[in-house]
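Summary for the lay section of the report: proteins are chains of building blocks that fold into shapes. Here we show the chain for Amidohydrolase family protein and then a coded description of the shape we predicted for it.
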Amino acid sequence: MSVEAKPAVHSPAASGVSGAVVDVDIHENMPNLRVLLPYLEPQWQRHITDYGWTHVRSDYPYWPPTAGTGGLRMDAVPEVGGPPGSDLDLMRGQLLDRHDIGMGVLTGQHHFSAMRGWYEFAAAIASAYNDWQIEYWLDRDPRLRGSVQVACQEPEAAAREIDRIGSHPQMVQVFLPMITHMPPIGDPFYRPMMDAIERNGLQLALHVGQATKTPFGYHRYYVEWHTALPQAGMSEVISLVFNGTFERYPELKVMVLECGFSWLPHAMSRFDQQYRELRAEVPWVKRLPSEHLRERVRVSTQPMEQMTLHQLNKYLELMETDEMICFSSDYPHFDFDAPERILPAGLPESTKRKILRENSLAFYGLTS
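The coded shape description reads as follows.
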C-alpha cells in the first residue's frame, strides 16, 4: 500500500472472517522524547534536556523516496503535530476501528538494543519507555498488547527489566531488533535475558531495523537493502536452532517480524539438509530444524509479496502447515497492509481465520 493510499472503509466483516483480526506488528511512537522525562532519574533526564540526545543512531545511510515522513504514512501525522503513530485516537480511527482489529501488538519505533555504548542509558530509557507505553497506550485501550523493550547489550539489565514489567497482563513478549553488530540471538551471551523471558511466560519478537545489515553491509540503494532483509530473519532462526535454544527453553516461541514468509520453505529445507550432514557438530539439537520451526517460530505477513491463490497455496504446501503465518499491518509504515486486502480471493475460510486471527492467539497463549 502506498503512503497516500486510503484504507478501506470499516465494516463489521471487513476482514472477511468471523470475528476480529489480530495484528502482531503496530509501531506506536512518542510525540517527542520529553514524554519520557517523568519516568527517568535526573542523571538520565539530562541526556535529553542538556546533552541533546535525540535518537538511536546507526550508520544507516539511506534517504529513499519514502524518507520524507521517515518511511511512514503521510496521513498518519497527527493534526496537533508529532510523528506518525504517536496519537492513539488517530490510530484507533485508521487501524483498530476501521480494520476490525480486536487485538494489536505494539512494537515501537525506537530500537534501544541497537545503541552502541551508553548501555546504562539504553537500559534506563528502555525502562522509561515501558512505563510510558503502559500509561499512554495499554491503559487507554484494552485491545492493545505491549512489548517489553530492553537493552540486550546488557543481558543482566534486560533480565531485570523483564522481571520488573513482564507480569503486566497486557505485556505479551520481549522485543529485540535484529542487530548485526551484536552476536546472533542464539548466542549464550543472551542467556540471562532468555532465562527471564522463559520464567515470565513471555515470547520473543525479532524485528528488522536500521541496524540490520546484509552480509555485505549496507548496499548502495535502499531498495537493495530492503529486498535483502529476510536474510536477517533466516540468520537469527539458524542461530536459535543450532545453538540449542529451543531445547534449553522448552516454552519459548519466537515471532519474526517484517521479513515476510516466502523465505521459509527454502530455509526449512536447507536447515534440514545441513543438519543431516553436520549434526555431529551440534549434538544438543535433537530434532529436525524444520520441526522446531513449525512448532516454535511464527512469521508476520508484512511485507507480503503480491501472490495468487496458487502461489500462496504452494508456499503453504512446502511449509507443510498453515499455522506459521500471522497477520501484521505494519502501521503506520508506508507499505501498510490492510487485512481485507492482503490475502488472495478463494483462500479457504479456515486458512483465513488462522492467518488473520487464530495463529496469533495461539502464539500468545490466548483464547478467542
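Put simply, here is one thing we learned. Residues 21-363 form a domain with the TIM Barrel fold (CATH 3.20.20.140).
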